[in-house]
Amino acid sequence: MDNIVVEALIRALSVGTPLLLACLGAIINERGGVVNLGVEGMMAVGALAAFAVASSSPDANLWLAVGASMLAGAALASLHALATVTLRANQFVSGLALALIGTGAAGLLGKKFEGLPLFNKVNDWNLGGFVINPFTVAALLLAVVMAFYLNSTRSGLTLRSVGENPAAADVLGVNVGAVRIWAVLAGGSLSGLAGAFLALSYRASWADNMTGGLGWIAVALVIFVGWRPLRAVLGALFFGFLYYLQFRLQGNSPVPTEVFNAMPFVLVLVVLALAGLRGQQGDAPAGLGRPYVRGER
Amino acid sequence: MRFVPLAAPSTARASLVTLASVAVALALCALIFVFYGVSPAEVYSTMLRGTLGDSTGLAEVGRRTIPLLLIGAGLAIAFRAQFFNIGGEGQLLLGAVFAAGTALFVPLPGPVLLPVVFIMGAVGGGLWALIAALLRRLNVNEILSTLMLNYIAIALVTYLIAGPWKGKDVRGYIYTDSFPDAANLPVIAGTQVHWPTLVLGVVVALGLQWLLSRSTFGYALRVVGENPGAARYAGISSARVMTVVALITGGAAGLAGAGEVAGIHHRLLEAGQISLGYGFTAVIVAWLARGNPALCLITAPVMGIILAGGDLLKIDLNMPFRVVDVFSGVILLCLIASEVFVRNRVVWGVRA
Fold it and tell me: Are B281 and B68 within 8 A, CB to CB?
């Protein structure tokens, strides 16, 4: 019995890791007032970049691969920053375009990596009998750091003020555009990192569509956890557990496979509707989703 | 660099900016192709020669234009109401499911069957979009909800064709039995252009344009989209407008789904075979048309060229079909990023 509980927890943490990383990225993004729905795309290019670097030679540097994933995510995010912050484009549609570009470009450029072996995957750590993935450790630490950053540092306060009330921040001498661009780039690099986990450790391979909708779930998760990094840990664990159940019950139950495939997406809808009923949208940064133009309200 | 708002942006300016943004998009895609290792000239010439260059190609463009026109015209009015329905894919699939269910299991006399198949298709698509409209009342962002509904629709189709609706005559494959002959749409000889759906698409595009620009509902819709505050003062219920808009756009996508199964496949089959991403591509059709359903008569064939061209790239240059997503994404991004140049004049230098 104990074994099942421990196994479930570890699997849930494991599947929850990319969700957590991407969700933390989206939180930084959105606390700065910019929505980026392109997480799925940034995750895909992050996964490809990491795999491309890691598989380039048997003794390729994995740190380099991780760095490449974050750079790739940020590079794609910079298009979003340019479109939405500089050119004031609709953030929601720009994010959608980003998702298409990212998954499309990763699928196209990644074709030659399909089915290739990964010689040096990122292995789990054994911490005194407790086996855990380095990415998971990093994601958990990051959640704590980010909570501290947002709540207790001056720079975090500036970021939040830019998301809540850009006009007031502007009056106080904050460069709203610059802060927002940094938030978008930081968000992109974390989404890329989420992709690196999939390509270097979880699947340790490259396949088209390997993100499989995780990015979209991460975007919805942000609303569910009320834009709070520490709650994101619980949220990611919850959805990770659902995925674990999906693996576990598939084939062993009278319920058809398709029900399990659809379950995470149905649950996202339910969870969003519940968050809406509880009025949790009220936790959203007040300036979220709107371009800031000086002198306009 | 700063932007100075123009009092009245002209149509000429909008057209020029649209053309320029598409040109920039094609140039950006060219860069990606260089990176991929094929010459952009080869990509573009393959696409153009194989689509506009011969009659088979033209027919392929026509076939893909039909669903893009129907979904795009519906989305055009949705975007005018600021209802960002990106669930055209799921709504098309539900339309196909309802249409197939009717064709396969409802015994109706020959001449009545096809109209009922289309009506049920519209009902299926409309109901799927209605879920998103109702969730929006709970403040659930419709981009997220319609997207989740896409994934759920795909699972539903797979469940039906592998489970309860699996054909009795098919072994090993997952799809339903063929529709009865009375449920099959006529096509232009030698092509897969099911012309009744094409006619329907033209009628829907023109009808929605009339609705948008001439009817009371169209006026309410535009007010809700352009100035929700004013709509509230004027006593226009934005929730009700959203519900009707969702039913219309979902219904149009449902008609497209009915057309695909009744006109081309004659059975319900896997989601990826029913739609080549029509739902997403139609977002660009509607955006290129700047929210005018009638203009989709021009923009749908343009995107039809890209979809048909993507197929050619797969066959002739052995490129993954994902190339279509790259085109779609880059064009969409360039379009919305250029919007600011339609409504503003650019002034270089710092504020005086």
Answer: yes
- How far B313 CA lies from chain A's nearest CA (Å)? 12
pTM score of the predicted model: 0.92
* Model pLDDT for residues A32-44, shown as the tens digit of each residue: 999 999 999 999 9
**Tokens encoding B270:** 């896997």
Contact B130, B168 (CB under 8 A): no
Block residue for tokens 């002198």: A295
Q: What is the largest CA-CA distance in chain A?
A: 63
Q: What is the mean pLDDT of residues A212-241?
A: 92
A35 close to A92: Cβ distance less than 8 angstroms: yes
Chain A hits for B32, CB-CB cut-off 8 Å, are 105, 108-109
A window 214-253, beta carbon within 8 A of B: 216, 219-220, 223
Q: How far apart are CA B325 and CA A102, in angstroms?
A: 9
* Non-local CB neighbours of B322 within 8 Å, separated by 6+ positions: A103, A104, A105, A107, A108, A208
Residue of B nearest to A224 (CA): B140
Report the distance separating Cα A68 and Cα A51, nearest Å: 9
- What is the ipTM metric for this complex? 0.93
Contact check, Cβ <8 Å, A87/B337:
yes
Query: In whole angstroms, what is the distance from residue A61 CA to residue A45 CA?
Result: 19
